Fold:
Amino acid sequence: MYTQALDIHPQLATPLVATEDAHKQTHFEETINHEGKIEPRDWMPAHYRKTLVRQISQHAHSEIVGMLPEGNWISRAPSLKRKAILIAKVQDEAGHGLYLYSAAETLGTSRDQMLEALHTGRAKYSSIFNYPTLTWADVGVIGWLVDGAAIMNQIPLCRCSYGPYARAMVRICKEESFHQRQGFESLMVMMQGTPEQQAMVQDAVNRWWWKCLAMFGPPDSDSPNSEQSKRWGIKRISNDDLRQSFIDATVPQAKVLGVSLPDPDLKWNEERQHHDYGAIDWDEFWATVNGKGPCNKERLATRVKAWEDGAWVREAALVHANKQKARQSKEAA
Ligand code: 3HC
Structure:
């Protein structure tokens, strides 16, 4: 195959290749510095590609596993209206997973490879989906707090330097914002109901609050990927800053709802113009991330079963596609 290297003396090859790489590297960095987008066919450093596959695939897995805690409540929703909303929301999460797997595939990793990593427990997904949904109020609180935290983290990803991820995030964020509102509205209705309903909401808030704060990831001082991801324009805002923005935005919402947030240290700090808050249990977070949360085994087992049960659909689709391709080639011949 023709390459420029064939035309030059072997001793000169290394410096020329190195110069070409340096040009590509400079172009890549200039694109990032000028807020341009890196597209699938553009040159990119191997570590940039690897970081994106890591983050986007973890994100895709989170969307797909995230269908499970709420999916448990579809058959027990208290009214037809709530059931229809919940089905639509869970279906949206499946769609988000598909956009994200597609975005990750543009980086050269197949969906089968990503799913294999999930099913064998090698891939991470968000800690938050390893907790049980004990009552109907949990569904509302997931919408309000979990999706609220997800939006806070994901809006800056719409400006990610990698084009396919950024474009997927624009659509995902629009849908997530509906998810958050429906959760808040559902809780509002319960808070105007009986004392038992109000207690159910408060109990769900107490159980989910700290888990949502941990969702943003480890403190900046303990986040090995943040610095480089920020330099590359993948991550725009740090874990701690996003966590702080979420707390500041949520405190007034909790007041409107009439619930308290389970943190005695939570108070407005006039000097910082932010809320101070108590210590997050990072040991519990890491245990959950590393497979020892209350529902990790159940979540993975459900995903693996869904994958195995769907094998015949994938096989049938493949056979159909191959038949169509063969017919098209025959017609074209
Ligand atoms: N759960 C599980 N693992 C987590 C985590 C969490 N909440 N937070 C961080 N981690 C992991 C990281 O993946 C990383 O692991 P790795 O190096 O082995 O891949 C490690 O902990 C160290 O964390 P870092 O802060 O260094 O990692 P990142 O720079 O990647 O930041 C992140 C973590 C903020 C989650 C970032 O990856 C991100 O913004 N991801 C995209 C958004 C996302 O995946 N959200 C998940 C929730 S999606 C969702 O909620 C669906 C919605 O429908 C509700």
Remarks:
- The pocket of 3-hydroxybutanoyl-coenzyme A is lined by residues 54-55, 58-59, 62-63, 66, 93, 124, 126-127, 146-147, 150, 153-154, 215, 217-218, 223-226, 229, 235, 239, 289 (CB under 6 Å).
- The first helix runs from residue 10 to 33.
- Residues 9 and 53 are 38 Å apart (CA to CA).
